[in-house]
């Protein structure tokens, strides 16, 4: 089949390849900024809660940890600092709520601002696409026949673990 210069799929594939290369570069820079070993924290930042997860120091498995009920940012930040100190966290993976088409939304901008506000902690931060994370976790909880109350109690920290696991699994690709 001859090449058709008007074929849009060629340009779409170029864009996808550029996006993949950019993500791999971000992942590589994040990995290089981390000390060898050390625990990472995953954050699922919502308007009402922040789900927290941690992984082991070899970056093999992520586990849900806790959920912070949001108040004012200064209080949220203090609780996060305590969590980071207690868990000996060396880097943050923050879920980025992109729109389904991959573009930013007002919620995305809010999470990016939250991420910038984490800079005083001095930790490397990786923004990780979290599309479908809460939905995937909710589906798993429904399949496990978890009650509505139980789902509400654990969904945010489990989404944080899902986000963190996706990032650490991707370390193998770089």
Automatic annotation (TrEMBL):
**Location (main, coarse):** cytoplasm
- Residue ranges spanning the membrane: these are none
Q: Which SMART domains match?
A: YqgFc
Q: Which UniProt keywords apply?
A: Cytoplasm, Hydrolase, Nuclease, Ribosome biogenesis
Residues in YqgF/RNase H-like domain copies: 38-137
GO CC, any one term? cytosol
Compartmental location? Cytoplasm
> What's its EC?
3.1.-.-
Enzyme category, top tier: hydrolase
Among PANTHER family, the record links this protein to: POLYNUCLEOTIDYL TRANSFERASE, RIBONUCLEASE H-LIKE SUPERFAMILY PROTEIN
Per the entry, what this protein does is: Could be a nuclease involved in processing of the 5'-end of pre-16S rRNA.
Say which family it is in: Belongs to the YqgF HJR family.
Q: What is this protein called?
A: Putative pre-16S rRNA nuclease
The organism named in the record is: Zymomonas mobilis subsp. pomaceae (strain ATCC 29192 / DSM 22645 / JCM 10191 / CCUG 17912 / NBRC 13757 / NCIMB 11200 / NRRL B-4491 / Barker I)
